[in-house]
Amino acid sequence: MQPAFFLTGSGEKAFRWYFGGLASAGAACFTHPLDLLKVHLQTQQEGKLSIFQLTKDIVRKQGFLALYTGISASLCRQLTYSTTRFGIYEVAKQNFGGDTFQAKVAIAAVAGAVGGYVGTPADMVNVRMQNDIKLPQDKRRNYKHAIDVLLRVYKEEGVRKLFSGATTATSRAVFMTIGQLSFYDQVKIILLASGIFQDNLATHFLSSLTAGAIATSLTQPLDVIKTRSMNARPGEFKSLWAIIIYTAKLGPLGFFKGYIPAFVRLAPQTILTFVFLEQDSEEEQCSFLFLN
Predict the structure, then answer these.
(1) How far is CA 36 from CA 4, 29, 67, 174, in A?
(2) Helix-strand-coil percent breakdown of the chain, rounded to 5?
(3) Is the pTM of this model over 0.70?
(4) What is d(CA 169, CA 227) in angstroms, rounded to the nearest whole number?
(5) What DSSP designation does 2 have?
(6) How many helical (H) and strand (E) elements, i.e. helices and strands, does the chain have?
(7) How far apart are CA 184 and CA 210, in angstroms?
(8) Which long-range CB contacts under 8 A does 231-234 form with residues at least 24 apart?
(9) DSSP annotation string for 5-52
(10) CB-based contact 32:261 (threshold 8 Å)
(11) 125 pLDDT above the threshold of 70
């Protein structure tokens, strides 16, 4: 039987391809409300409400559970998008010479591009479900769950709409994967090489926090454009450029709307993902050593 965990020639941990997707899904269960708030901030053109005011407004009008609107879509997204990018990244890194930082960045870019495209339908579903509760009652789509959104969009708007925003989603995923995966590996290597840190929770926390900050800064403009594209009604924007012009009316900071909730969401998302991922690997190592 093939072990679920092993060590590479350089002593680096190697994971089964699906660990990243499961870890990301687990993290999403904790960070979903922050993702919902980020979407709401990005889709309001005037943007007068702060994240605290927005949270209070949603809970007061819809109840606390409204913060978990679209959780099924969020899990669906992580199980497609993150499973793909983590799987490609880890397998390629372990088998095709991902020993240098430059190689890891290149592998992460490819993994992110594929993962971003594969995860676009689930990403679109996630945006639609999260944004629905902020609309007036007569304009809500009233989706039941992620599968309901996929089927309704396919029937009502066509298969092309499922991949609405695929260009920006894929571009964003490239930078997100570079920021999260390759920088996590690199920061962890630097910390361990210093002789001060050990391969433990503190190192995993610092590495993932740094990776989360880098990933947020790299992806926020693309994330704003992607969110507007996925949430747009048929015919609202003629092209991607039209969305960029529409967003630019708010000034340069318009492309960084929702940055704080994006970082507040992505930082714990990144931290929890890698903590879960590293924990899974340690448990698998113990199981493998015990069985052998």
Answers:
(1) 34, 12, 7, 22
(2) 75, 0, 20
(3) yes
(4) 9
(5) -
(6) 13, 2
(7) 7
(8) 231/39, 231/43, 231/127, 231/128, 231/131, 232/164, 234/157, 234/161
(9) EEE-TTS-EEE-TTHHHHHHHHHHHHHHHHHHHHHHHHT-SS--S-HH
(10) no
(11) yes
